[in-house]
Specification:
Layout lengths: L1 H18 L12 H19 L5 H20 L9 H17 L6
Length: about 110
């Protein structure tokens, strides 16, 4: 099970790195909410697989939401990035979808 938690840490590190980049949106790019849902869906999957408790939904969601919130706070200190409750919402939704998808896991 340690390898699963290592994957969570690696994925969280990737999120942190990407959110530390000063990025400007361009008209042809994918909407940011889709990126947030997708990235945090994967985080939800990884956290759900890693947790070794029967009802992992709530605990997993708390982990993912707190990480998404901390990531938005981190972005307040990055040039060109801002804190957004909308992004926290999309992060949370993606995490929940990922956690639900892990239902019935047998890893």
């Amino acid at each position: 099970m340690k390898i699963y938690w290592l994957s969570v840490i690696i994925w969280m590190s990737m999120i942190f790195y990407l959110s530390s980049l000063s990025l400007g949106g361009s008209p042809g790019e994918m909407p940011s909410w889709i990126l947030h849902v997708g990235v945090y869906l994967i985080l939800g999957l990884l956290v759900g697989i890693s947790l070794e408790i029967k009802n992992y939904y709530l605990f997993g969601l708390v982990i993912c939401v707190l990480y998404g919130l901390s990531d938005e706070i981190h972005q307040m200190f990055v040039v060109g990035r801002v804190f957004s409750f909308y992004d926290v919402f999309w992060d949370s939704l993606g995490s929940l979808i990922g956690l639900v998808f892990v239902k019935g896991k047998s890893f």
